[in-house]
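Curious: why this fold?
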Amino acid sequence: MLSPGMDSAREGGGVAGTVLIPMNFVWSYGGRSVYLSGSFTGWTNLYQMSPVEGCPTVFQVICSLTPGYHQYKFFVDGEWRHDENQPCISCTYGIVNTVLLARESDYIPPPMSTAVSSLTNMDVDNEAFQQLVRISDGSLHEAVPRVRETDLEVSRHRVSLFLSTHTVYDLLPESGKIITLDVDLPVKQAFHILYEQGISIAPLWDSFKGQFVGVLSALDFILILRELGNHGSNLTEEELETHTISAWKEGKGYQNRQIDGHGRALRRGLIHAGPYDNMKDVALKILENQVATVPIIHSSSEDGSFPQLLHLASLSGILKCICRYFRHSSNSLPVLQLPIFAIPVGTWVSEIGQTNRRPLAKLRASASLSSALSLLVQAQVSSIPIVDDNDSLLDIYSRSDITALAKNRTYAHINLEDMTIHQALQLGQDPYSPYEFNSQRCEMCLRTDLLQEVMDRFANPGIRRLVIVEAGSRRVEGIVSLSDIFKFLLG
């Protein structure tokens, strides 16, 4: 992977008086020690590559190269490797990567071999990634691999067939616990329970009806705090104490104009599924209703009495089953071998060249918490990248972060307009400390990462979105979520 570098560069064997072009060489496949060598060093010197902060599997080094045609290779943990996702040829040094730095439009590089797939060591379809990287006046242009309709249809059909023939029962863990809340519980107490249990969503139980009737999520608390904030300068515990979960849900129905013919608030029915429903139906329920989880409820009675809550199904669990099933037959899903920037998935900044249905929401750390909460609600997103003045990723603010305001009853002592995002994310720490990159909270990927790699990341519990960044600078290029992946796979 290559990109123009703007930092101080290493000298790469240039001739005196020749214009040198800084190039950022990137190795994205991990290792303990990674070095670069190439024709620009006479294949005699090794340049040590440094790990990228926040991306432990990504290494980079910047070299200054003369315009022209160059070959290079990586020395990873004592073995020579090449990047199959970049142009490569077979020569006396084995399979090597190539790059063309040209200022004249008529420069033609040596032909690249397309018959090296049998010699590769990453199990990647080379033919899909043979691309010419060309630099003209310092700007990078890379040919985007095309998504073939037949590959897309085959991949979607096989995923759909798998999901349609496997039930939610396969998602049930051998053991576990689910926190449920009674609808008559005060909102303040529910707020504290979610924070103390480290969860952002809980099913609601109505003891009078003997049924599960809904869920309480972090979004509910965002709406509650925004509403109470509109009625005064500060939030008080008394205001939260007067609201039961049931009263809040009814008031929310009035706000959304969900009222029946008798003037009573209509509650949205509980979106749920049974253990023998197929995974595809559950995934579609999550997508169509824009919810994070679907409770799996079983009742042995025909009338649905004495329901048992078995599990909270999520797209993460379903995706984990997909990855496990196709792990040893990934070639049967051709789209898995495409980089994410080549497929219509996620939301991207406009300069990347993707067609966005909506602009990518970003905020500075100095923005007010009120503006972050408003953006989460109005843009209907679950998280917002927090960036510095160069649009480099610092942190991420998610809906679930609202529960941190329960710590030391912070919600009772703040004004949403006065608290910054920095302060909200630094609760319990020094609010005046410099805001630095938080590698523990930011899950990132690169635009050149394969769809299969991204899906494997999403199969890990707790990861619901990945911020797409530029290697080295961490400049935000886009964001891809679990729901984006399923919308693409299910068409």
